[in-house]
Design goal:
The protein has about 425 residues and is of the alpha/beta class. The chain has two domains: about 350 residues, Glycosidases (TIM Barrel, Alpha-Beta Barrel); about 70 residues. The strands form four sheets. It has an eight-stranded parallel β-barrel, surrounded by five helices. It has a six-stranded antiparallel β-sheet with strand order 13-14-15-18-16-17, with helices on one face. Strands 1-2 form a two-stranded antiparallel ribbon. α10 packs parallel to α11. The longest helix has 21 residues. Keywords: Hydrolase, Membrane, Transmembrane, Transmembrane helix. GO terms for molecular function: hydrolase activity. It comes from Sulfurimonas diazotrophicus. This is Glycosyl hydrolase.
C-alpha cells in the first residue's frame, strides 16, 4: 500500500484513512455512483424485505459449513500442525495484491493443504484500483499461481470502507470486471465471487447485485460482522443475525446478476485487553469465554437459516481476535476447543428445527446415530430438568452427566442415540 493508505499488521486491516481532502475529492469524483447506491437501496431493499417470506431453504453440505481463515505468513508451521486436530475442510486464504513478492510463500503454504477446499480472497489497494494495466497483470499472475489449488476467488473486499481503497461501488465493479474478462478469456474454470460488503449496509450490496455494467457474480459473499451489537441474537434496526442473512439471500434471489451459493467470508468478535491487535475499540471487545460462546451461536444461527454454504471464521491465529493467541508462542483459546467440538458434532448433522422461547434457544439436528439437541440462552441462566440423567457435551468438548442442566450462554450438546 502506498501513502496515505497504510496496512496495520497488528489488526490485519488498513489504518483509518485520515486524509480528509483526499476523501472529499474521491467522493466528489464518484458522486454519480454514490447517488446510484442510495437509489438502489431505496428501490431494492424494500422489495427484498417483501420477498423474504418466499425464500426457499437450501440443503447445506454439513462438512463444508464451518470454514476457517488461515494466514500463510503468520506461524505457518504451527498452523499446519494445528489444522489436523480441528478437522476443518474449508479454508480461506487472504491474498494482498500489493505484496506480489509473497506469492511464492503463499503457494508453498497451500501446497501442504492437500485435501482441503480452498477459497481465495484477493485484497486490493488504491494503486490496483486506479491502474487497470497493473490490475490485470497482477490478477493474471495470481490466478496462474493459485488456480491449481482452488477455483473460488473473491474479487476485492470491503468495498464500503474508504480505507480499503474503493471510493464507490462503480469503482469496485470496474475492478471486478477486469477479473471477469480475464477469467472469460483465460481461466474459464474459475468462480468469481463478490461483492464483499462489510456489515449490515446492504444498499451497497444492492447497487452491486443490480448493476448495469455487465458484472456477474458466480456466488455472493458478505463480511457479516455483528460484534457492535454484542450477542448474535441481538438486533439492529429490528434485524438479528438470521434476519440479516435472509435479507441478503433475498437480494441474491432477486438479482439477475448473481447466483448462489451465499458465503459469509469474514466474521469474529474482538478480544478485550488485546490492543493494538484488536481491530476495533475496547467498547466492542469481549472476554475469551464470551467470544467462544458467541462464535458457536453465530454458526448455529447461520446454519438454521439454511441459506449459507460456508461461514469462514476470521481467523485461526491472531492476538486480537483469533482462536489462537500468538503474542507469546501459540496459546489455544477456549474458542479453539469450542470450534473443534462444534465442527466434529455438526459434520454429519442435518438441521431440523430451531426453537426459541423468548431468549431461550434449542436447536435440533439429525445425525446418523440419532438426534443432536443444542441448548443455550441469550438471557439469564436457567435449569432444564430431564426425567433421568443424560450425558451432555459442553461447549469445549468436556462431557458430564446430569438430570438438571444449567443452560447459559455457552451452548451445550445432547446426543439422543437411536436404539438399535
Amino acid at each position: 500500500m502506498k501513502p496515505p493508505y497504510a496496512w496495520d499488521f497488528h489488526s490485519d486491516q488498513p489504518y483509518q484513512l485520515k486524509d480528509r481532502p483526499l476523501k472529499r475529492r474521491l467522493r466528489k469524483a464518484q458522486r454519480a455512483s454514490l447517488v446510484k447506491t442510495a437509489l438502489s437501496g431505496l428501490l431494492w431493499l424494500p422489495l427484498a424485505l417483501l420477498a423474504m417470506p418466499f425464500l426457499r431453504r437450501h440443503p447445506i453440505d454439513a462438512p463444508h459449513f464451518a470454514g476457517l481463515i488461515v494466514d500463510p505468513l503468520r506461524a505457518p508451521d504451527a498452523t499446519l500442525e494445528a489444522l489436523p486436530s480441528l478437522d476443518v475442510e474449508e479454508l480461506l486464504i487472504r491474498v494482498k495484491l500489493w505484496e506480489r513478492s509473497e506469492l511464492d510463500a503463499i503457494v508453498s503454504f497451500v501446497r501442504q493443504l492437500e485435501g482441503k477446499r480452498l477459497f481465495f480472497v484477493l485484497m486490493q489497494d488504491r494503486e490496483h484500483i486506479e491502474d487497470a494495466a497493473l490490475r490485470k497483470e497482477t490478477l493474471e499472475q495470481t490466478f496462474t499461481a493459485l488456480a491449481p489449488f482452488g477455483n473460488r476467488f473473491q474479487i476485492g473486499t470491503t468495498l464500503n470502507r474508504a480505507k480499503w481503497g474503493f471510493a464507490s461501488v462503480n469503482e469496485y465493479l470496474d475492478f471486478f470486471k477486469t477479473a471477469q474478462q480475464l477469467r472469460d478469456d483465460a481461466f474459464p474454470e474459475l468462480q468469481l465471487i463478490g461483492p464483499g460488503v462489510i456489515d449490515f449496509e446492504y444498499h451497497f450490496a444492492a447497487h452491486a447485485l443490480f448493476n448495469l455494467r455487465g458484472v456477474r457474480f458466480d456466488a455472493v459473499n458478505a463480511l457479516l460482522y455483528v460484534d457492535r451489537r454484542g450477542a448474535p441474537e441481538n438486533t439492529q434496526a429490528g434485524c438479528d443475525l438470521p434476519c440479516k442473512i435472509n435479507f441478503l439471500s433475498s437480494l441474491t434471489m432477486l438479482s439477475p446478476r448473481a447466483k448462489r451459493p451465499l458465503y459469509l467470508t469474514e466474521t469474529n468478535w474482538p478480544l478485550t485487553g488485546t490492543a493494538p491487535y484488536a481491530p476495533t475499540s475496547e467498547k466492542e471487545c469481549v472476554d475469551e469465554e464470551t467470544y467462544a460462546s458467541y462464535m458457536v451461536r453465530y454458526y448455529l444461527l447461520a446454519l438454521a437459516t439454511q441459506q449459507v454454504a460456508t461461514v469462514y471464521w476470521h481467523q485461526l491465529a491472531a492476538p486480537g481476535y483469533g482462536l489462537v493467541d500468538t503474542r507469546d508462542g501459540w496459546r489455544e483459546r477456549p474458542a479453539f476447543h469450542a470450534f473443534k467440538t462444534m465442527t466434529s458434532l455438526l459434520k454429519e448433522a442435518r438441521h431440523i428445527a430451531l426453537q426459541q422461547r423468548r431468549e431461550r434457544f434449542e436447536m435440533v439436528l439429525q445425525r446418523p446415530d440419532g438426534l443432536l439437541r443444542i441448548f443455550w440462552t441469550n438471557d439469564e441462566a436457567y435449569t432444564q430438568h430431564f426425567a433421568e440423567p443424560r450425558r451432555f457435551i459442553g461447549r469445549d468438548g468436556r462431557t458430564f452427566t446430569t438430570d438438571a442442566l444449567a443452560v447459559s450462554g455457552a451452548p451445550v450438546y445432547l446426543i439422543e442415540k437411536d436404539e438399535a
